[in-house]
Write a sequence for this structure.
């Protein structure tokens, strides 16, 4: 049913808590798991290298967590606006499901009134499962 699952992550507690649910779905449906992290450059003064290093460390940690559960995960790192990038990657990889936590690390430049989660739900090319 869910051949490819996309799991966008950040350093939030909600993303960490969603990982157990993701593992359950991936094991149940024998799905391909793609873990995505998006680097968002907020201003020209932002140190992109430290952001890239933090994302690489985050992805490696997530891959190790799933590996301990016998799940092979692919890692994708992109730069851009999170909601649009998540939907673009879902389309590129042919995702059947996006699983994400209900909150990220806070407000982004995308605006205070519309969260990344809300935008992904509205723009996604596939079903989105939100883990509270």
């Amino acid at each position: 049913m869910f051949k490819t699952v996309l799991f966008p992550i950040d350093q939030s507690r909600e993303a960490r808590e969603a990982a157990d649910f993701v593992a359950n779905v991936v094991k149940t449906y024998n799905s391909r798991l793609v873990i995505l992290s998006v680097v968002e450059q907020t201003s020209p003064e932002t140190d992109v290298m430290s952001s890239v290093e933090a994302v690489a460390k985050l992805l490696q940690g997530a891959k190790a967590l799933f590996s301990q559960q016998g799940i092979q995960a692919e890692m994708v790192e992109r730069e851009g606006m999170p909601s649009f990038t998540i939907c673009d990657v879902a389309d590129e990889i042919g995702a059947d499901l996006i699983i994400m936590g209900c909150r990220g690390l806070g407000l982004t430049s995308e605006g205070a009134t519309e969260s990344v989660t809300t935008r992904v739900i509205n723009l996604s090319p596939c079903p989105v499962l939100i883990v509270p």
About this structure: The mean pLDDT is 86. Residues 48-67 form the longest helix (20 residues).
